[in-house]
């Protein structure tokens, strides 16, 4: 599932070089899988996992051994993971910056899929002009606007149905080196075929197809999740994949007003299905991660804890990280050095229960 807007980033660029998250690739990448895996079971405690255990868990999800090792190494170079060594054994944990970043992102993913606030019929417009030699700044601004729920109505004119919040204003002020104007008002439709409604900045048909594909792909697995038939490596694999897929929706459908959407909009059914699968697999997946880590650790790993959607909404914080409400938006997933896409062909959710 890729964005119909051709925006690869899930988290925006806050202009910081201290943490470089991997860029979203078409499909699931080893780095993305590794980061999701670490977040799903160690975000709350920032537990360090033996590198051999991380490799074992990733290979169970279809990543090659070489791809898993490369992903860990690159995430460490990016500042996403911190490494330590005890004798011949190496371990990795999420850095504090990454834990705060991912906690904010998890909260954003879930709250963005909740019922939208009442709409007052007005639109916030951000018009900007940046020098031609500031291409990186332009990309960062566009990524930031996308993360904030804006879409391009015209080149250099981005819109949102909601007010510009103080934190969003602060982020835009930090990013902007050119000319930016923000204003809010109502549309006055023209009796002309050239009149473009603001909602057309979003490809509603494409978003609908993405929701439909998500529901068609994951609904057949739900009865098996509820009956406890999905466990072990299959539970970890399915839980990682459903998160890796669902987290793209906030950039596709940033709480667009229901008044402007077709009847029967699938935002809520998709969110409910995601929660049922993700939460329903939390316990068996946690048990399997503990079992795998135990094979490579000297003691029973008590600090491996799967969080649920309720935890994500409340704010899952790693040791030493800050509250999600106090953090800046997550950093952009910047391009990896070279290709690390060494995964075997991706299985469907139903196929993932095999093996």
UniProtKB/TrEMBL annotation:
Annotated region described as Disordered, given as residue ranges: 315-355
Domain Transcriptional repressor PaaX-like central Cas2-like, first and last residues per copy: 117-191
Domain Transcriptional repressor PaaX-like C-terminal: 202-290
InterPro entries, sorted: PaaX-like_central, PaaX-like_N, PaaX_C, WH-like_DNA-bd_sf
Regions of compositional bias (Basic and acidic residues) in chain numbering: 340-355
Domain Transcriptional repressor PaaX-like N-terminal residue range list: 33-96
Domain of life from the UniProt record: Bacteria
Protein name: PaaX family transcriptional regulator
Organism of this sequence: Micromonospora lutea
